[in-house]
Amino acid sequence: MSDEQKRRIELLLAERISLEGICRVMEIKAHQLYAYMDELYADIPADLACSAAEAADIELRCIDCETDELWSFVLRKTNKQWLWLALDRASRQVVALHIGDRGATGALGLWQALPEPYRQQASFHTDDWDAYKQIIPVHQHRCSQYKQHTNHVERFFCTLRQRASRLVRLSLSFSKKLNRHINSIRFVVTHYNLSLQL
């Protein structure tokens, strides 16, 4: 594939277009697309290109995060995979994400994915889900039964569903393999974080 084709595929992967649709538009075979996707996903930075996590003065400011979880599935609806996400309130960038079950194990996966300054100093606004209470230290946890304290992350989930076809409800576009599911979501989130920096 040419560099121009690769650039266009990167843009198309960050939109809500099925992989078959990308193949038709770009006039390429599925195996070519999958090979390039694997190459592209291998280069996703571990920090999701979040500049908020790299701020030099992070110790000098109050850090607020909103966290929530989003239902998804891989291959069949009985194979539920929950997307756990932490969003920095000030920058609106996604700081960390984890895909797993909806229990304490999933919450622990998100906690471990957070950059160290956030785990040490941030306040976390969550809904009343028990898994958060088991993982987030009490002095950092701001639990609320109302959506107003997690409205930014809820709004981001709407954006994510608009950009990642495999997260759309009642869609025929779904992941068949867990690693592709995780990498495609990480790619869209990284693309979103980079767009906020511009």
Topology of this protein?
Blueprint: H1 3-13, H2 19-26, H3 30-41, E1 64-74, E2 76-88, E3 94-100, H4 104-113, H5 116-121, E4 123-126, H6 130-135, E5 141-143, H7 151-163, H8 178-197
Parallel strand pairs: 1-4, 4-5
Antiparallel strand pairs: 1-2, 2-3
Q: TL;DR of this structure?
A:
43% of the residues lie in helices and 19% in strands. By secondary structure, it is of the alpha/beta class. It starts with a helix and ends with a helix.
Say what the CATH topology of the largest domain is. Answer: Nucleotidyltransferase, domain 5
Share of β-strand residues: 15-25%
Task: Count up the helices.
Answer: 8
Helix content: 40-55%
Provide the spatial order of strands within the biggest beta sheet: 3-2-1-4-5
What this model shows, in words?
The protein has two domains: 3-41; 52-197, Nucleotidyltransferase, domain 5, CATH 3.30.420.10. Helices cover 43% and strands 19% of the residues. It has helices at residues 3-13, 19-26, 30-41, 104-113, 116-121, 130-135, 151-163, 178-197, and strands at 64-74, 76-88, 94-100, 123-126, 141-143. A hairpin with a 5-residue loop joins strand 2 (76-88) and strand 3 (94-100). This is IS1 family transposase.
Describe this protein with a few key phrases.
198 residues; alpha/beta; Nucleotidyltransferase, domain 5; 2 domains; five-stranded mixed sheet; 8 helices; globular; Transposase_27
